[in-house]
Amino acid sequence: KPNVAVLAVQGAFVEHERRLEQLGCDCTELRHGADLARPFDGLVLPGGESTAQAKLLRDLGMLEPLRTRIASGMPTLGTCAGLILLAERVTADVSTPSLAGSMQDGTASEAAAEGSMTRGAFGTMPITVRRNAYGRQLGSFRTLAPFGDEGEPPCVVAMTFIRAPRIESVRDGTRTLAVVDDVPVAVQAGNQIGCAFHPELEDSNVVYERFLALVEGVRTAD
Ligand code: GLN
Q1: Is position 80 annotated as part of the catalytic site?
Q2: Model-level pTM?
Q3: Is 198 in the active site?
Q4: Nearest to 16, CA basis, from 34, 42, 51
Q5: Is 127 in the pocket of ligand 1 (CB under 6 A)?
Q6: Every domain of the chain and the residues it spans
């Protein structure tokens, strides 16, 4: 059986575990640094609050060891906050009071935006995301869109967005797997898959199947 580690410090990790178990996986919850000693073939980074997750990862001593594994090809699925952790560049939420303030007082918004650019906690995926960028009305919404790689028969799936990050740029061979309103919402770079939406809330298994195919690939190569 494939064994998938699920980051379980904060956020929607239980929902992912349920789905992975239904699909025939064993799950290892990562709660403490010591959990990294257990064997696993893939990693899921759930939705939640990316700032809290990043702080906990650092405090628990999991950030560097996991970054090394992701960077060396461990199949990884990051959803929503998990996608933010993976992103090489993260621009601030425009509703952040300090940033909104500096924009209003006439400071060049470009400088403000640049000053607010940080690296995602892992920073392993060549994309830029903006946190909470779908606006107040659209803070949460559900839509249907095709999901799949170029050349694959696209599969239309439901996608739920909850204060989702907006993928603002995709670089260096990162592929776009799904687009909503001209904006990429699912991407893949090597063995890393990132979704702005929450596949754990939908019936469709396409996102998990894509991730588990990567996990199988690594297992058979071992
Ligand atoms: N808004 C959250 C963040 O910026 C992500 C929301 C989610 O994971 N549903 O971390």
Answers
A1: yes
A2: 0.90
A3: yes
A4: 42
A5: no
A6: 3-221
